[in-house]
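Propose amino acids for all 833 sites.
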């Protein structure tokens, strides 16, 4: 069952009913100011950091769900309704929400009035702009009142939810009914002391009335669905003093039949230099010293959206910006679902994960995790082609949180860019992801100079070394921390946060990740070993290109040693082992009744080329190669119609020596859920051994556009990936959770764009190596790289093991690399296989 449809030409998902199984959201903003916005107008806004600079309030775990957002109410002769359906829930004759790239529109119609609200964060602005267009669709003139509503958060979102003894006394606002561009409400809580920022909520018209006190607007013991002021049809003019400050304007509007009126509301964040915080004292105007906020910057902001034409121009600029961004990679094939995921939604989600890391979504509260070292490096992989300069900046920020021994802070705060001491370090996969991120950046941009950037360790400038030295420390950290089988020690956890082999916890509530209570453990990770083979080789390549032949040779020898260790000590007979536990016992082995086989080492090892010798699918001997055996075992034991589960069989009881993985009921999250992030590793693995058909089949199982028809089962947005889909042993197999903020976005973009469609940047040229199977016999990829454009037309038999023969501008070339052409040129490539 569906709840809407894709509008490919507009690059929008159109939701045609408010009654989706869960709020389906969008993100506004991709620079400093961000909003989360559901299809029924729920959500909140923040400036840069969802914890420290929250502009509006949102209640997670609320009943009803998703009540709280920016709302417009209509009182039409006593009929009170909200065009977003929530929160009044009055029946609508027509409802439509369109989520586009950095904007959404929500339209509701009732009783002869149609209200369309457009929400977006304009480029270069720290504000959410809301353009509300009301049309009289009836045959008679209509007079009605429109009310706006936002609820302010007292900035620190965590404190806001916990510290009522203080917070209920500090709320302060100012109201300006006849400002230069209309009426505005200023939220200035804590501005009197250390804060240098306030929020403004304005409308480009002289409002009829206003409210800033929530209890007055809503009425004691009412909800937003029966708020007193809209019901009364008249603003009360309340001025908040403590309690709960809000912003609400009212506008009395009269429309002739068929007539429309548009108003622009702006919710903005304003920062003033400390010495410009206040309006100058002015006895005549009744302004006392340090009492009235300096509104100059707010007035300038509101003036930029004073007319509908200005708002429309800003909106067009945003759309043009996305057209430009997305022109870096696009495909035209016979599969419209493939095209819409590749050309629009997957890239869009990569932008969001790059910006948000794992901070703010409808599953992440914005007050928990900061930027993850591991997560942000992986997010880069799907983002770097969009804006390489921003990837560069991010890499340098991340690298500065590395420790001198090569280990790293697991997380850092976006506002301060400092490592997070609560979590600390000890996740032994972290260092190697830095190599992955840097290699991807250089291949995309050709900018080797980043390796010479001086970057601090532990944010201490006096410890600065070149970025290349950081990579060396990452590489060395893995070699220097190996266990009895020559495999890397796992530390607190590797990629799988929930495989905690050095934490034996019996204490409810204790952290599985940061409580290390087992000393002298020898727990080793086959996953990190595979990661080392893949990224160690990248490191060697970078060393070589820096003219460090000895370093490169030594690194390659270490990689070969690790490869051998994986094949001798990391192999179970039909698949790769997962790890060795604290006592040196195997994890991920057929010898155990549960957790026999884990997905991560299968995908990663094959991706790294471990055990691929002889894996040519056209020969019978292939079946004997470890790579094919491992992939076939995945197919047999982990694959379901909804994707591949993380491990199988799931643990049915708590295993103290394994940690958090065994805390989840079977089939959820890391305990046998379909943890979508790792599915693309197997997908890529299948392309490595030349089985494109299998790879594409797996891709379709988890990719949201292909799941749209089962939206009632999947439950979450059909346009973005979710972190997890419940696995085959779960009570609710096929149901997704945790949409948007997941490494799945970046990795699936890598899988589909670089391996299935097969166009990936190398150091010297674009590698063209399609492996998508027979379902997509013909397609064209347009790829911008280093300023040139490549039009790559693929004719594809889909035969197992077939590899493309290339013609570049009509001339046959050997191998699969199309050399980089000068910026400005267009190169035509034909690939046939
Ligand atoms: C979450 C974390 C990520 C981790 C994964 C598997 O997605 O953000 O860092 O690798 O879970 O545990
Ligand atoms: C990852 C896992 C989650 C775990 C968390 C701990 O996000 O997905 O299950 O609780 O890491 O940090």
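Proposal:
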């Amino acid at each position: 069952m569906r709840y809407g449809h894709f509008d490919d030409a507009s690059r929008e998902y159109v939701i045609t009913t408010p009654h989706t199984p869960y709020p389906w959201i969008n993100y506004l903003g991709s620079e400093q100011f961000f909003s989360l916005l559901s299809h029924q107008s729920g959500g909140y806004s923040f400036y840069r950091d969802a914890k420290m600079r929250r502009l509006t309030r949102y209640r997670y775990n609320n009943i009803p769900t998703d009540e709280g957002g920016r709302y417009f109410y209509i009182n039409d002769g006593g009929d009170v309704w909200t065009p977003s359906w929530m929160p009044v829930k009055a029946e609508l004759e027509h409802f439509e929400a369109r989520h586009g790239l950095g904007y959404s529109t929500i339209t509701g119609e009732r009783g002869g009035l149609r209200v369309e609200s457009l929400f977006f964060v304009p480029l270069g602005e720290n504000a959410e702009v809301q353009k509300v267009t009301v049309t009289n669709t009836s045959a008679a003139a209509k007079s009605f009142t429109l009310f706006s509503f936002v609820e302010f958060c007292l900035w620190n979102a965590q404190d806001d939810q916990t510290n009522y003894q203080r917070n209920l006394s500090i709320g302060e606002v100012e109201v300006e009914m006849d400002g230069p561009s209309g009426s505005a409400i200023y939220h200035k809580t804590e501005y009197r002391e250390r804060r240098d920022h306030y929020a403004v909520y304005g409308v480009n018209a002289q409002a009829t009335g206003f409210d800033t006190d929530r209890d007055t607007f809503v009425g004691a013991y009412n909800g937003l669905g029966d708020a007193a002021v809209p019901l009364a049809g008249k603003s009360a003019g309340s001025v908040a003093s403590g309690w709960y400050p809000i912003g609400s304007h009212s506008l009395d509007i009269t429309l002739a039949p068929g007539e429309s009126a548009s108003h622009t509301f702006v919710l903005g964040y304003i920062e003033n230099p400390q010495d410009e915080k206040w309006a100058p004292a002015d006895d005549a105007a009744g302004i006392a010293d340090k009492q009235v906020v300096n509104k100059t910057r707010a007035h300038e902001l509101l003036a930029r959206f004073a007319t509908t034409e200005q708002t429309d121009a800003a909106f067009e600029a945003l759309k043009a910006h996305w057209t430009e961004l997305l022109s870096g990679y696009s495909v035209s094939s016979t599969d419209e679902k493939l095209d819409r995921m590749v050309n629009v939604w997957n890239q869009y989600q990569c932008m969001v994960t790059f910006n948000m890391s794992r901070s703010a979504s409808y599953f992440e509260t914005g007050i928990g995790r900061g930027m993850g070292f591991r997560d942000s490096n992986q997010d880069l992989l799907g983002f770097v082609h969009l804006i390489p300069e921003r990837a560069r900046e991010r890499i340098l920020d991340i690298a500065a949180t590395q420790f001198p021994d090569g280990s790293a802070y697991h997380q850092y705060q976006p506002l301060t860019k400092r490592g997070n001491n609560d979590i600390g370090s000890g996740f032994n996969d972290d260092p190697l992801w830095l190599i992955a991120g840097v290699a991807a950046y250089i291949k995309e941009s050709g900018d080797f100079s980043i390796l010479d950037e001086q970057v601090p360790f532990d944010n201490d400038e006096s410890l600065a070394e070149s970025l290349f030295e950081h990579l060396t420390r990452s590489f060395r950290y893995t070699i220097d921390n190996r266990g009895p089988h020559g495999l890397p020690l796992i530390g607190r956890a590797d990629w799988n946060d929930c495989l905690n082999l050095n934490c034996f916890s019996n204490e409810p509530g204790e952290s599985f990740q940061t409580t290390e209570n087992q000393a002298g453990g020898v727990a080793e990770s086959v996953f990190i070993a595979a990661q080392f083979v893949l990224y160690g080789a990248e490191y060697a390549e970078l060393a070589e290109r820096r003219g460090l032949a000895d370093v490169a040779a030594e690194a390659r020898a270490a990689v070969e040693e690790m490869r051998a260790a994986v094949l001798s000590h990391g192999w179970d007979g039909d698949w790769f082992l997962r790890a060795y536990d604290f006592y040196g016992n195997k994890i991920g082995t057929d010898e155990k009744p549960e957790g026999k086989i884990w997905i991560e080492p299968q995908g990663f090892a094959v991706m790294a080329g471990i055990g691929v010798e002889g894996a040519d699918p056209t020969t019978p001997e292939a079946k004997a190669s470890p790579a094919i055996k491992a992939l076939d075992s995945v197919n047999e034991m982990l694959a379901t119609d909804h994707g591949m589960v993380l491990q199988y069989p799931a643990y049915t009881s708590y295993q103290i020596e394994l940690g958090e993985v065994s805390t989840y009921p079977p089939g959820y999250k890391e305990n046998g859920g379909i943890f979508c992030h790792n599915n693309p590793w197997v997908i890529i693995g299948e392309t490595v051994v030349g089985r494109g058909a299998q790879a594409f089949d797996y891709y379709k199982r988890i990719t949201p556009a292909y799941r749209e028809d089962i939206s009632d089962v999947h439950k979450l947005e059909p346009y973005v990936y979710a972190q997890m889909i419940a696995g085959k042993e779960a009570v609710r197999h096929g149901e997704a959770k945790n949409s948007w903020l997941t490494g799945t976005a970046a990795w699936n973009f890598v899988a589909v764009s670089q391996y299935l469609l097969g166009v990936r940047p190398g150091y010297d040229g674009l590698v063209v190596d399609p492996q998508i199977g027979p379902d997509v016999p013909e397609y064209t990829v347009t790829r911008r790289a280093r300023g040139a454009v490549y039009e790559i037309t693929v004719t594809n038999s889909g035969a197992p093991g077939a590899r493309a023969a290339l013609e570049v501008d009509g001339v046959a070339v050997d191998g699969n690399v199309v050399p980089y052409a000068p910026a400005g040129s267009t190169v035509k490539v034909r690939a046939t296989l």
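The radius of gyration is 28 Å. The mean pLDDT is 97.
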